[in-house]
Amino acid sequence: MIASGAIKTDAKMSFPLRLNEIFVGLNLIIDRYMPDAISVEELFFNNNAKTAINVAQARGVILIVGCQRQIPTYEYTPLQVKQAVVGYGRADKIQVQKMVKTILNVDVLPKLDDTTDSMAIAICHAHSARFAEKL
């Protein structure tokens, strides 16, 4: 692991401005680290439609940035991520966090669950990309 973190926005800001902050922040991250790929989790719709719509819009920003920057972008379901990280698609959040910590050989995980989730998605992509190359 080279770095981890989150693009945080102020909940008091208008939603379009928050999306713009994600856009600008992601471009800065790409400029700094020059990733070979972007991996995102496919949207899992639960009970809160408003939250799902907002998350979908934020994901849209990520997908557009990847497209504009010509960085291959991959999407994985929560089941695929859990399978790749834990070996079991129905693993709980604690199991995923423990395996992320073990796989990345870090002493402490970030406090923000979204950051740990993004690490798990990156691990999933790393495993999937290696497998795809062998095919």
The ordered string of helix (H) and strand (E) elements is HEHEHHH
Largest sheet: 2 strands, parallel
Number of strands: 2
| Uncertain residue ranges | none
| Structural category | mainly alpha
The order of strands across the largest sheet is 1-2
Helix content: 55-70%
Radius of gyration: 15 Å
Multimerization state: single chain
What is the averaged pLDDT score? 93
Q: What is the first-to-last residue Cα distance?
A: 26 Å
By DSSP (H or I, 4+ residues per run), the number of helices equals 5
Q: What share of the residues does DSSP label as strand, in percent?
A: 5-15%
Shape: globular
Describe this structure in words.
The chain is mainly alpha-helical. Strands 1-2 form a two-stranded parallel sheet. The chain has helices at residues 15-33, 49-68, 78-86, 93-104, 113-134, and strands spanning 38-41, 73-76. The longest helix has 22 residues, at 113-134. The two termini are 26 Å apart. The protein is built from 5 helices and 2 strands, in the order H-E-H-E-H-H-H. Helix 1 runs parallel beside helix 2 (49-68) and helix 4 crosses helix 5 (113-134).
Summed up:
This protein has 135 residues and is mainly alpha-helical. Helices cover 61% and strands 6% of the residues. The protein has a two-stranded parallel sheet.
Please tag this protein with its features.
mainly alpha; 2 strands; two-stranded parallel sheet; 135 residues
